[in-house]
Amino acid sequence: MKKAVLVTGANSGIGLALCERLLCQDAEIQLCLACRNMQRAEAARTALLVSHSDAHITLLHLDVGSVSSVLKAAQEVKMRYNRLDSLYLNAGIMPNPQVDIKALLKGLFSSKVIHMFATAEGLLTQHDHVNSDGLQEVFATNLFGHFLLVRELEPVLCQPGHTSRLIWTSSSNARRTTFSLSDIQHQKGAEPYSSSKYASDLLSLALNRHYNDQGLYSSVVCPGLVMTNLTYGILPSFFWTLIMPVMWLIRVFTNTFTLTPYNGAEALIWLFLQNPESLDPRAKYHSLTSGFGNNYTQPRKMDIDEDMSEALYEQLLELESKVRKKVKKEEEDPRVHEQYLHQTE
Ligand SMILES: NC(=O)C1=CN([C@@H]2O[C@H](COP(=O)(O)OP(=O)(O)OC[C@H]3O[C@@H](n4cnc5c(N)ncnc54)[C@H](OP(=O)(O)O)[C@@H]3O)[C@@H](O)[C@H]2O)C=CC1
Ligand SMILES: CC(C)CCC[C@@H](C)[C@H]1CC[C@H]2C3=C(CC[C@]12C)[C@@]1(C)CCC(=O)[C@@H](C)[C@@H]1CC3
């Protein structure tokens, strides 16, 4: 039977490279590109069809940062598919990133230089804001929208006698100290990206605990440092091009500089080929590229614990129930949403 695979954030970067590689791996798959911008989605589909003219590629409108869009898209998926084999939770944002140049220069001459290049620890901050659902945008996009999608798609992901998989594009920038159970949306800090990625690591563990007995398995990946729209938002593309020789040199010392979306998608493809039951729920699967340009996947233990992951899971369930109530009220009376927006202005 043809496998059905859905990829969020599929129109550029790692998501698009993943789609290309999935089609090379299995030309028969039913591939669904879930994107917030349909023009960009159509362009991605056209590009994929150039090298895979017979491929079965459909588009789905999904703004993962919007509760109503997620609910609508999930309804559509349930109408289109009886079963979803793989769901790649890949869409992600890092708004208004700032590099701490002082910390970068200091780090360059410290013993932690390799760790700094691999994780960007202490180097990056972002400015986040509240979205129209009243949620922190980074949390809503990188984590909560995807959580809601998984919950909504339960009937097509949990089919008796079959296994399905969730694959989260996390990051080695995920750090325990940036995440707090008393502020899961990271309203107070300046590292919402790191916090949201740490939360996805915790959530993946919790999803395994709650869904493995229904045949659903979850894994997390770090694609390494990849040149995409996300990194071009940190430093302009001409700067990255200028320092490319330095980046290749750094790759000799840290295999996490995968640099191209193709290389970055390595672990995402590797997981697609594994039996999900054989995977370690506490491992993050890293896409790595050696100094000679060879790609490989390596599991590394995550700094997470069961209690914290369960506590986050419970808070997400609570938030889910709140937003569902709000959506229901708005459906009954659209003025509720307008009033809500006035209150948050
Ligand atoms: N690049 C890197 O070095 C690393 C990236 N990652 C992660 O990889 C993932 C992919 O990012 P990358 O390929 O680098 O960057 P890109 O910006 O190229 O890709 C991000 C994708 O997510 C989509 N997206 C963003 N917000 C939403 C939304 N609200 N709803 C639907 N889609 C959305 C974007 O769509 P649109 O084109 O419309 O903006 C785009 O297709 C992210 O989760 C990122 O955090 C992890 C580690 C390193
Ligand atoms: C290499 C140059 C001489 C200077 C570049 C300095 C920084 C801009 C980069 C050093 C480590 C990079 C990094 C990321 C962004 C750019 C750096 C901070 C990420 C945070 C991008 C997104 C991710 O999810 C991480 C895996 C990256 C980790 C490394």
Automatic annotation (TrEMBL):
<dbReference type="GO" id="GO:0005789">
    <property type="term" value="C:endoplasmic reticulum membrane"/>
</dbReference>
<keyword id="KW-0560">Oxidoreductase</keyword>
<keyword id="KW-0521">NADP</keyword>
<keyword id="KW-0812">Transmembrane</keyword>
<dbReference type="InterPro" id="IPR052834">
    <property type="entry name" value="3KSR/17beta-HSD"/>
</dbReference>
<dbReference type="GO" id="GO:0004303">
    <property type="term" value="F:estradiol 17-beta-dehydrogenase [NAD(P)+] activity"/>
</dbReference>
<keyword id="KW-0472">Membrane</keyword>
<comment type="subunit">
    <text>Binds to the short form of prolactin receptor.</text>
</comment>
<feature type="transmembrane region" description="Helical">
    <location>
        <begin position="230"/>
        <end position="250"/>
    </location>
</feature>
<dbReference type="InterPro" id="IPR036291">
    <property type="entry name" value="NAD(P)-bd_dom_sf"/>
</dbReference>
<protein>
    <recommendedName>
        <fullName>3-keto-steroid reductase/17-beta-hydroxysteroid dehydrogenase 7</fullName>
        <ecNumber>1.1.1.210</ecNumber>
        <ecNumber>1.1.1.270</ecNumber>
        <ecNumber>1.1.1.62</ecNumber>
    </recommendedName>
</protein>
<comment type="pathway">
    <text>Steroid biosynthesis; zymosterol biosynthesis; zymosterol from lanosterol: step 5/6.</text>
</comment>
<comment type="similarity">
    <text>Belongs to the short-chain dehydrogenases/reductases (SDR) family. ERG27 subfamily.</text>
</comment>
<keyword id="KW-0752">Steroid biosynthesis</keyword>
<comment type="pathway">
    <text>Steroid biosynthesis; estrogen biosynthesis.</text>
</comment>
<dbReference type="InterPro" id="IPR002347">
    <property type="entry name" value="SDR_fam"/>
</dbReference>
<dbReference type="GO" id="GO:0006703">
    <property type="term" value="P:estrogen biosynthetic process"/>
</dbReference>
<keyword id="KW-0520">NAD</keyword>
<feature type="region of interest" description="Disordered">
    <location>
        <begin position="325"/>
        <end position="345"/>
    </location>
</feature>
<keyword id="KW-0325">Glycoprotein</keyword>
<keyword id="KW-0256">Endoplasmic reticulum</keyword>
<dbReference type="GO" id="GO:0047024">
    <property type="term" value="F:5-alpha-androstane-3-beta,17-beta-diol dehydrogenase (NADP+) activity"/>
</dbReference>
<feature type="compositionally biased region" description="Basic and acidic residues">
    <location>
        <begin position="328"/>
        <end position="345"/>
    </location>
</feature>
<dbReference type="InterPro" id="IPR042829">
    <property type="entry name" value="HSD17B7/Erg27"/>
</dbReference>
<dbReference type="GO" id="GO:0000253">
    <property type="term" value="F:3-beta-hydroxysteroid 3-dehydrogenase (NADP+) activity"/>
</dbReference>
<dbReference type="Pfam" id="PF00106">
    <property type="entry name" value="adh_short"/>
</dbReference>
<keyword id="KW-0443">Lipid metabolism</keyword>
<keyword id="KW-0444">Lipid biosynthesis</keyword>
<keyword id="KW-1133">Transmembrane helix</keyword>
<dbReference type="GO" id="GO:0006695">
    <property type="term" value="P:cholesterol biosynthetic process"/>
</dbReference>
